[in-house]
Automatic annotation (TrEMBL):
InterPro entries with a match to the protein in the record: ATP_synth_F0_asu, ATP_synth_F0_asu_AS, ATP_synth_F0_asu_bact/mt, F0_ATP_A_sf
Upper taxonomic lineage: Eukaryota, Metazoa, Chordata, Craniata, Vertebrata
Provenance organism: Pygoplites diacanthus
Protein name: ATP synthase subunit a
The UniProt record lists the keyword Transmembrane: yes
Residue runs in coiled coils: none
């Protein structure tokens, strides 16, 4: 049976149990629980420092009302980074390559920011649909364009994360297959290709972290418009 390159992105099942659910629960098990001691180990210290810095940088432009989202956004950031990084390990499944999962995260959070804006400041929220100083003949066209762009936001969030991770995994698989094919034929070329594979893996580690940060950062920007 011939396998497709995209078979690695199929959600695995075992004995009728979707392993996607297990892979979504696994990240929370890996992180150490903060202790009540005054001095912690290096892992807990780094974890606390990272969460504090991320929260500070993300919520600095937001007012006090937006700070209520700090726990949710920080947890989502850590969750996405862990899923993306675990997916780079051999023989693992990356849940964030599933568009349904990414849209399931993006749409409710985006909709929550829009509902908050319409509830707290409806005039300002609707004002984003029409830039100030727009000529009168262009008002209906711009309202339609801004409305479409508003509803495209969650789709763009989910597609961006899915496309970047899927492309990276495909590149790694293609280059690794090239290394295996070239190894008995041209060992020197295979060695150079293996170096390329190593550099590509390092790039994918950076992409896994950056895409998780961009996902949460854009949500915080959407929240900033509505609080």
């Amino acid at each position: 049976m011939t396998l497709s390159l995209f078979d690695q992105f199929m959600s695995p099942w075992h004995m009728g149990i979707p392993l996607l659910a297990i892979s979504l629960v696994l990240p929370w098990v890996l992180f150490p629980t903060p202790s009540l001691r005054w001095l912690n180990n290096r892992m807990l210290t780094f974890q606390s420092w990272f969460i504090a810095r991320f929260t500070q940088q993300t919520f600095l432009p937001l007012n006090v009302g937006g700070h209520k989202w700090a726990l949710l956004f920080t947890s989502l950031m850590v969750f996405l980074i862990t899923l993306n990084m675990l997916g780079l390990l051999p023989y693992t499944f990356t849940p964030t390559t599933q568009l349904s999962l990414n849209l399931g995260l993006a749409v409710p959070l985006w909709l929550a920011t829009v509902i908050i804006g319409m509830r707290n400041q409806p005039t300002a929220a609707l004002g984003h649909l029409l830039p100030e100083g727009t000529p009168t003949p262009l008002i209906p066209v711009l309202i339609i364009i801004e409305t479409i762009s508003l509803f495209i936001r969650p789709v763009a969030l989910g597609v961006r994360l899915t496309a970047n991770l899927t492309a990276g995994h495909l590149l790694i698989q293609l280059v690794s297959m090239a290394v295996l094919v070239l190894l008995p034929l041209m060992p020197t070329v295979a060695l150079l290709t293996a170096v390329l594979l190593l550099m590509l893996t390092l790039l994918e580690i950076a992409v896994a972290m950056i895409q998780a940060y961009v996902f949460v950062l854009l949500l915080s920007l959407y929240l900033q418009e509505n609080v």
